[in-house]
Every structure is written in structure tokens, then in C-alpha cells.
Amino acid sequence: MHGLENRKIVIFFIFSLLCFIFLVRLFYLQIPDNQYKLEASNNVLRRVIIYPARGMIYDRNGKLMVYNEAAYDLMVIPNQLQPIDTLAFCKLIGISKEQFIERIHKAKKYSRYKSSVFEKEISSKSYAEIQEKLMYYPGFYVQWRTLRKYPKSIAAHLLGYIGEVDENTIKKNPKYRMGDYIGMSGIEKSYEEILGGIRGINYLMVDVHNREKGKYLNGKFDTLAVSGKSMHITIDEQIQEYGEKLMQNKKGSIVAIEPSTGEILAFITSPTYDPNLLVGRARSKNFPELAKDSLKPLFNRALMAQYPPGSIFKLVDALIGQQEQVLFPETRYPCHGGYPLLGGKPKCHPHASPSDLRGSIRTSCNSYYSYVFRSIVDKKGFKTFEESYTNWRNHILSFGIGKKLGTDLPHELSGNVPSVEYYNKYFGKNGWKSSTIVSLGIGQAELGILPVQMANVMCIIANRGYYYIPHIIKKLNDTPYTKAEFLKKNHASVNEKYYDVVIDGMEMAVQMGTAAASKIKDINMCGKTGTAQNPHGKDHSVFVAFAPRENPKIAIAVVVENAGFGGTWAAPIASLIIEKYVTDTITRPHIEERMLKANLIQNP
Amino acid sequence: MRNTNNIFGNIDWVLTLLYLVFVFIGWLSVYAAVYNEEHQSIFDISQRYGKQLLWIGTSLLIAILILVIDQNFFPSFAYPIYAFILILLFGVLVFGQVVKGSKSWFEIGGFALQPSEFAKFATALALAKYLSTLGIRMENLRTKITATFIILLPAVMVLAQNDTGSTLVFFAFIFVLYREGLSGNIMILGLYTATLFILSLLMRLSTFSLPFGITLSGDWFLIGILGSIALLMYSITRKIKRIWIVILLAWIFSAGLIFSVDYIFEKVLEPHQATRINVLLGIESDPKGAGYNVNQSLIAIGSGGFLGKGFLEGTQTKFNFVPEQSTDFIFCTIGEEWGFVGSLFLIALFLTLFIRIIIVAERQRSTFTRIYGYSVASILFFHFMVNIGMAIGLAPVIGIPLPFISYGGSSLWSFTILLFILIKLDRDRLLVFR
Q: Which residue ranges make up each domain of chain A?
């Protein structure tokens, strides 16, 4: 290899040249008196986080439901601390000397170089005072933040609250840092990505007197904070507020949905709490108190309470019976104060008998639906009883009962429709038949349905056969916005043509049946009462409805726990909300007054 | 022969000493980078610096092991080792763990191993073995193709693991090929193409206003400048016969290259791929991603000043949140705490290492050892170039470790193996003629 030895010179040269370039660059970075160097050795660089303002939340009509208010955190960087007049400082902040020592210790333990919060959310008044005297206290500075504010004190569970991120979340999502706020529940949680915004960072030069000397290198490394996007939600603030008022001193839930879109109009759970209680530093005091409360105000009944539906379930049975060709509008079954074939059980209340399909809905006949249920699950043509039961259960699931609907709210449960496996385990294989589980047919036994699912069933009936997944998002930054899954029609397994008979029955129930006391003038409401037996005391009062019959605008489910007959409490409350929503007036002030005044919480 | 019984006899003490100094600096730097008040003991195994000490200890064992192995082992087993590593690389694609987006780790009982680190020395051995075979001449096209194949095969498999940084390291072998007779023109052509590619990417979105109200797009501006350079070159060399044809063709080739960049960028690449390249080149900013780390690194190094802030006194490196502080961005700890003087010392130390390796390589009678020596120098140099270049904002953010300094077991082991095979081969240089 002749002459190749000289090539080592070339390689030497390339290696040396790069080292030289590196040294020139390092010289330029490190030596000249300005650029990247911190000037005097006493100066320090302070990394100030610019927290983004969270997005505002508006209702469907553009009324502001959540906004932000400024707050100030006092921060400390332990390694910049110098001997100070501790007593004067403690007086300024309003803490004891012991607290001071403890907090400094805690901050040092976290990090000597990174800043930590010394005192959260100091008021604007003490902020002004502290700001003035801050130059005597090197190592301390004030960090601007925002707090949530709720002008109306409503919809606490729906809106949710925010809190500091925990370590698990930080590990999973490195976007978050210690001290960031994040949505913990409700809309704040499910739309965290949208509402949260992006934090910015400013590098400030600070001199020995704790005075900010301006931006480091004219802000070359600074990043801007990007505020969260504002959101319009589908809630009607007026209805929400009215519903919460009607539910005062009652336990239960109301869910109202616009059937033609799946937009949730009202989402009420009672007892509730003032969302302003869980803001900022008040949260650490108020949250445990709310959690201890025996009425469970933090429990979101609309999405998490699984009620036996009671008689409203008969509507679904009536639809499935027709689809399965075992029930026709003219079908009549006898009732003798109970279901005759099983010795008068389930029991029934006095009413004209025998009735046809429409009449059975109007009078809510238990005996009739025991016949219907058994005729569905004992239908010929299936190999085994298990198969025919599964067939019935699949019909039920197609109505969005017993499975998660997939709303855009966190912590949604699925409800319960017992499976074949469950009964096999409970009674043994072949140890159960239609007579064993006949109370399923009238909405009792192991059935568990969420209020949001009840309202959704009303949407299906109002739409004659389909629903959109109930959801809460309407607009982002003032532009209509929704998700693809919320635009999709979900069909129940019952054909469109079977609905009108059932709707006839519901109309009759309101005009001259179980809910006749809740008739609204000029609005044709179709509804069904339910009185759900439960092991925890008095029956739950349940009512589902939609209105008007043609072009339905609202579908609603009301549950009042331990209040008794469905027609007495749930139906009037639903009728008031419907009237308010459709006509914006109340024509029956006496009913309204009775509902507002009622205290139905049992004092144990 | 002398001292064949003593495993440390006759080894190159300069290289060995340099190695020990490097790992010591590395250990201290990892300590400084992750230093916190609760765990002050530098021997604390729960912390990275304690673990690094473990890696250093095991590396020394590996070094001794390499020194005692039979002298013919590495030349004889070059191909089997290469094949074994290829199997591992394939295995990691199937069974590997995904860490930071790259599927390049084996996890065996809480212990992570990265085969791509070991592919470097294996490729060096295979390349040395092939090029030192009797009758193989660099001038032959077949030799070039085979050599390229030996280098690219593991490189492609590493790329498939989505580990771009480690893939690029394989380009370092071009120095080896050059030393062994690859035409310098190919290197220059490659360099020219790469430069032009990056330049046109940087300039394609800007426009230039010239006098007389002429506005040019970045592409045309670049072509214009190249045209002027071509004219200048022609005016100097016009005495050579038909030189204008060569210059004209080169200019047309360059123009074609510039426009193909546009085409590739807009038609071939997916939008997110284009964005990634833009971020890499600093055309788009990504303050939360790669750009954030570089900013932090520049602040830290710049704040070091002439003498630095002193050991463990660095504020910026602790103050910031760069996650790769002890691995990819280890240099900013050194820059901040030891200042320009410390940086100068470290760079001088690396240059000494490179030069010493080349000296060692050049004194070999065996072609195999010389080629292997050059491979070692090239690989170490490439890591040094990209890692420090990235920390001082001269190279795009490509996560590869600084040899011997960065935290990490696999990388320290692989660099130790890489260097000590050379020391071993060099010690035995008088025993055999290969």
C-alpha cells in the first residue's frame, strides 16, 4: 500500500480541526463577559414558570360557568437564602416561627436548587405588602398562578375540580412537573388536554438584593405560556340551576338529554356542594369534611349510582316483546292484585283488568309484565333456556343498559344486567328458569341502572329506535366541536314500528294514568313512573319522560331516593324541568312550591 | 519474547492510563450530575454514581479477561462474533424492551443490555478481518461493496430498532476505509452532498432580496452562489483542457440535488418525519422537546465561565430538569463545574487518546490490528464529535454517549471491550505476523 501512510496525516488533521472548532465554540460560550455567562458571581438565574390560564367553560347558551382568578404563591429557593429577620418575616406572612423552620426544612429536603412553594395562595392584599419588602428576604419570590372561580356555585360534580399532580401522573406523563395543577374529576379531568394549556418558562437575572434585573439574555431562552382553550358545554345553565334547586334536601339525581343530538342538558346529583369549596388551599380543609359527610355529597349519583329501575323497565320489555313477536298491541293479560301463575306474586295495585298493551303501561301492571317477560325468555326456538335468556339480555344491552355508554365524563360505571354465568353460579346450572327470575321483568331483582342510562333509554324511545352517546362537549374556542363517536347513531335492537304503541301508553300514563298529577298544559309529555323497591329503606321514586311527543326536545330521568311512589315526587320535578326548558315559564306554582319545600332526607 | 507470562507486561501504558483517567472523570461527573443532599456517599449503590462504580469495576474485569485470552482468539473468531451480534440484534427486535422509543434493550432479571453497543466492536473486528485477508485490495469494486455490506448490515438492524443515534455511528468507518485506500474523492463527495442537503434544507423556506428589486427563493439563491463559485474556479483553472465541462456538470449536479431535496421533503416524507428533521436542524423550534435540552445545556456550559463553579457547585445542572443529565448531556456538568479550563483539558485528553490510538495502529505489522485500531479511533471520535457537538449546540440532538464518561453499563462495557481488544492486539504485535 504505497503512499497510504500519508493518509494518517489527513486523519490527524481532521481530528485536530474538530477539537479546535469545539474549543473556539466553548471559548465563545464561556469566556466573553456577557453572553451565556452569569455576570457577577453574586447574580443568580431564576427560572420562573409561567403557568397558563386554564380554559374558561361556558354553557350551551354562552353563559360563563367557570373562570379564573389571580392568586400568588410565595416560593423559596433554599440555597439562595441568607440570614433574615425571621420574626418580621413570619409576621408578614402570618405564620409561626415553628412553621417557618418546618417549611424551610421541607423545601431543603425537596431540593436546595429548585424552588418550592413556601406559602400557597397569598391574598392580593398581603401580596402587595410582601412584594414591597421582598428585597429584604433573598431566596423568596412570588409566583403568579390562577384559581378556578364558579359564579353560580352549581354543577360541581360535572365541572370537577383541579389539584396538584401526584407523582404517579408525573411518571406516566413527563409533560407535568411537581406543582402543576391538573383536572382531577369531571370535565376538568376528561378535557385536561384542552383546558390545561402549555406552561412557559422565563429566565430572570436576580441580584444580591433579590431584585429582578430583567430577562436573561433578553429572553432568548424564554418560552411563552399558552392558555388553555375555552369550551362550551351542552349544559343549559338555567335548567341545571333550577334542577339543583328542586333537588334540595332530597337524595337522588336528574339527567336531561336532547334526544336529537345526545347533548346532556342537565346533570344533577344531590346532595351536592359548592364547587368554590374545592378551590386552591380551601380544598385541603373542605375535601375531608365533604368526604366524611354521611349524605355523601361527593358521590356522583348520575354516573355512579346503580338503581333498580322499577316499573320504567316495563317500557323496554314492551318493546322487546313486540320485536320477538310474543306481544301485540291487543294482547291482554289478567291481573288479580298480583301475577296469578305464581300465586299472586309479584303483587300488583288495584286497577282495571285485564288491560291491553297501552293500558298496561298507563296502569303499570306488574302482572302483565310478568307474563310478557316470561313469554320472551320462554319463547320457543331456542335450544336452551340460557340461550333465550341471553337473547333477552342482548336486547337490553342494545338499549345502553348494563354497559358503559362511553360519555366524555370520567368515572362512568356500567350498571348491571345479570348474566347467565351469574345465575349459574348463584342457583347452579339449570337451577333457574323464567319463574325464578320473574321480578327482572318488572325492573327489580339484581338490575342496576344509572340515571344517565335511564335518560338515554328515553332518548331511544323519543327517537323511535336509536341514540347518540350522551356527551358534554359542544364548542372549542367558539367553534362547534365534537368527537366522531358522538355523531354516530347507535341503534337499539327493536324495530322503529314498535315504538308508537309504547309511546301511546306513556302519553296515557301522563294524561290519565300514574303520572296524571304532573300533566303540563300545552306540552304533550310522554312518561312512565317507577317505584323501585330497594333494601335501603323506603322505595325510590323514579320517573322518565320525554316531550313534546312530536319533535322531542328533551328526554329526562329523575330519581328521588327513598321518597316513595314515582308519581308523587319524581314525576312533578321532571314536569317542572321540562316546562321550564320548553316554554321558559312555570304555570303551576303550587307544585313548584311543594317540590322546593319538601325535605325528603331521612334522618337516621 | 519478553514478559509473555505477565498479562500486564508490554501493554501500552499510555492508553491504559488514559482509559483509567477517563473512567474516573466519568464517575465524578455522574456523581456531580445526579448529586443530591440525601445521598451524599459516592458509593451509594442506589444512585447512578454508585452503579457507575459497579460498571467500572466490571469493565476492569472484562479488560483483564480480554488480556488473558489467547492471542489468536479475536482474529480467528472475528466472523463468529460478528454473526453472534447480528443474531442478538435480530433477537432484540423480536423480544426487546422499548426504552425511550427505541426497541434496543434486552431485559434479563432487572438487568438491561443493549446489543447495539456491542455491534460496534464486532463490526470493527469483521471489517478488519475482511480487509486484511490476503489478496483483498481496496481498489476493487467488489471489495468496496463487501466492506460497505459488512458495515451496513448491523447499521440497518440498529435503525430498525428506531435508534438513529447508534446507527449514525457506523458512518465512522468511512475513516477506516479511507485509510485503507478508499479514494479521498468519495469522502469529499459524500461530505459535499451532505453539506448541500443540509444547506438547502436550511435555506429553502427563506427568500433573499438582492439589489435592483430582485427577490430570490432560497433554492435559487444557493444555486446562484454555487454558480459564482463555479465561475471563480473556472477562472483559476481555465488552462486545463476541457475543465469547463467538469465544472458545469458539477454545478448541474448540485442544482439537481437542491431541487430533489424539495421534492423529497414535500412528496416523499410524511409530515411528521419532515417536522422531525426540521426540529433537528433548528428550523422549527420545539421548546419542550429537543430544543429545551440544548437551551439548558448552553445555559449550564456558558455559566461555567473560565474556571467553572467548582466540583458540585454547579447550579444550572442541578437547577434544570434535563433528563439526560448523566448520559447524553454529561458534558454540560463538566462545562459548568470546571469551566473553559476543564473543557479544554477534557478535549485535549480526547485528542491525545485519538492520536495515541493512531500511533499504536500505525506501528503494527499486522494489517488486521491496524485496521481494527483505526476502527477504534473512528468510533470513539464519532461519539466524541456528536456528543459534545450536541451539548454545545453545534450538532443536532442525537442521543449517543460520551465514551467512558457517560453513565451506562452497556456503553462503558462496549467501549472498554473496544479499546482493550486493541491494547491486547498491540501487546502481542511482536509475537506473530498476521
A: 45-76+90-95+104-233, 237-597
Secondary-structure class of domain A237-597 per CATH: alpha beta
Q: Which residues on neighbouring strands pair with residue A449, listed in sequence order?
A: A307
Is the per-residue pLDDT at B32 higher than 90? no
**C-alpha distance from residue A99 to each of A86, A108, A346 (Å):** 11, 14, 66
User: For A26, which of B321, B343, B355 is closest by C-beta distance?
Assistant: B343
Contact B77, B129 (CB under 8 A): no
What is the reported pLDDT for A41? Answer: 45
pLDDT value at residue A61 = 93
B276 CB contacts (<8 Å, ≥6 apart)?
Answer: none
Please judge whether A26 and B288 are an interchain contact, meaning their C-beta atoms are less than 8 angstroms apart: no
> What's the pLDDT at B186?
82
Over the stretch B360-375, which tens digit does the pLDDT of each residue have? 999 998 899 999 999 9
Which chain A residues touch B374 with a CB distance below 8 Å? 11
The nearest CA of chain B is from the CA of A227 a distance in Å of: 16
Nearest CA-CA partner of A44 in A135, A113, A104, A111: A113
Sign of CA dihedral B252, B255, B257, B262: negative
Q: Would the CB atoms of B302 and A37 count as touching at under 8 Å?
A: yes
Residues of B in contact with A203 (CB under 8 A): 299
Question: Given CB atoms, is B335 within the 8 Å cutoff of chain A?
Answer: yes
Cell of B30: 455522574
Could B181 and A37 be called an inter-chain contact, meaning their C-beta atoms sit closer than 8 Å?
no
Specify the higher pLDDT residue, B402 or A445. Answer: B402
Please list, in sequence order, all residues whose beta carbon lies within 8 angstroms of the beta carbon of residue B269, skipping any fewer than 6 positions away: B277
Residue B408 pLDDT class (50, 70, 90 cuts):
confident
pLDDT of residue B38: 58
**Cβ contacts from A onto B, under 8 A:** 115
Q: Out of B319, B335, B392, whose CB is closest to A114?
A: B319
DSSP character for A338? B
Q: Do B354 and A15 touch (CB under 8 A)?
A: yes
Q: How far is B340 from chain A (nearest CA, A)?
A: 6
B409, pLDDT greater than 70: yes
Q: Which cell goes with B338?
A: 470546571
CA A571 to mean position of chain CA atoms: 25
**Amino acid letter, residue B288:** K
DSSP characters for A461-473? Answer: HHTTSEEPPPB-E
Cell output for B312: 458540585
Q: Check residue B418 and give left, alpha or beta (phi > 0: left; psi -120 to 50: alpha).
A: alpha
Instruction: Identify the segments of chain A with pLDDT beneath 50.
Output: 1, 35, 39-42, 604
Q: Which among A535, A588, A542 has a CA at the least distance from the CA of A561?
A: A542
B347–A25: do the CB atoms touch at under 8 Å?
Answer: no
Mutation for testing the A interface, residue in B36, B319, B379 having most A CBs under 10 Å: B319
DSSP string, A407-424: -SSTT----B---HHHHH
**Contacts with A221 from chain B: Cβ below 8 Å:** 295, 298-299
What's the CATH fold of domain A45-76+90-95+104-233? Penicillin-binding protein 2a (Domain 2) (3.90.1310)
Over range B343-347, report the average pLDDT.
96
Q: What is the DSSP letter of A430?
A: T
Of B181, B358, B392, nearest to A29 by CB-CB distance is B392
Rounded distance, CA A87 to CA A73, Å? 20
Report the distance separating Cα A558 and Cα A549, nearest Å: 18
Task: Give the mean model confidence (pLDDT) for residues B298-310.
Answer: 81
Dihedral-angle region of residue B17 (phi above 0 means left; psi in -120 to 50 means alpha; beta otherwise): alpha
Tell me the shortest Cα–Cα distance from A109 to chain B, in angstroms: 8
pLDDT in tens, B196-230: 877 887 777 667 767 777 777 778 888 888 888 88
